[in-house]
Amino acid sequence: MSALSKPHPTLRYTFLQGSYWACYCCIMTFSSVYLLAQGFSNAQIGVLISISGILATLLQPLVSRGADRLKKLSLRQFCALLISLQLVVGGLLFLLRGQLLQQVLYGLLIILVQLLMPLCSALGMACLNAGFSLNFGVARGAGSVAFGLVSAGCGQLVLVLGARSIPLAMTALHLLFLLSVLAFRFHGNGTSPADPTPEVSSHKPHLGQYRQLFWVLVGSTLLFISHNLLNTFAFQIVQPLGGNSGAMGTTLFLQSVMELPVMFLFGWLLTKCSSRFWLRLSGVGFFLHALGAWLAPNMGVMYAIQIFEMPGYALFALASVYFVNETAPPDQRVQGQAWFTMCATLGSVLASFTGGFLLDLWGAGALLAFSTLTGGIGMVLLWVLLGKGRYGDTPADQSSLQKEAVG
Fold this sequence. Notes:
The protein is mainly α. The chain has helices at residues 9-29, 31-37, 42-68, 75-95, 99-129, 136-161, 166-183, 206-209, 213-232, 234-238, 245-272, 275-295, 299-304, 310-327, 333-362, 364-385, 395-406. Helix 4 packs antiparallel against helix 7 and helix 12 (275-295) packs antiparallel against helix 16. The radius of gyration is 21 Å and the shape is globular.
């Protein structure tokens, strides 16, 4: 009996994705809550998060390239090593005082949690490539659920115990994350051995193979600028519409709920169209979300347009993972995942910088117009550059072309 046949691979990977996004929520969502309590100003917090995001952006392709070429460690063991480092840093954050130390330690946590994102995606794809049945969409949807639950739970924990409880919550969640990664082993009944170390591919380097890739990444970054402008400055966006912090919370909650149907049904969607098609379509969802927010006359409409989270971010989060797995050579799949994660990280950093500037100078209307502009350009780039024959056909694309030829 294989290590993943009991319980089912999807169950173990659901635990892994849930614990990752729980850690991500605790570190990123509660960064301001914790750092404000330690005496940091809003400006200092913004600079810390931005610098950490830039460093993570630079490190993601380097770390993932190294993960693709691991010799002595499996990908699973490499992930466990990074999580162990998170555990140590989180413990030091609770024990040590001083603003400089707190800045360095919290910055490290932000960098590490972002570096782990593409590695977790690659683990799921490696299990699928080894011949096991795994529903990636269901597991990723559970990650969104865990994010929401931890957000609510940590909020109550801070109310009862104060902001100093956040590093303790991080430690507990990192332990769960470490256990979930260590338990995610697969061998026996698949078509490949456990935790295979990729052999060097004879293909041309994936990341330099297609000249269009640079612009695909630019388009993806623009989509995430648009997306993060709406989320990071949600409070400032709902205020002119008569909304308050409660309305902001409702808006973000609806976004999370809208992601779930796509994530749970994505395996079925792949039987209808290729990952390339869904990745192209996601740009349309990002654009319509931003346009709807710009044109919304009241909070009722603002709530209604959160439905565009389904064809937007939810589709991109899954389609990009499958697309990289299907088009990249085996020894470059982790690196390919990192490039798309890098787009999300860079988009968040640039949105933070430009959004504050636009709000201070011209208000929420200018911010929403810019979000619509970046979303529109990103949509066009992905739609054009990911057309058939322009960027490595996936198996589903090749099958479709063969059917057309026969017909």
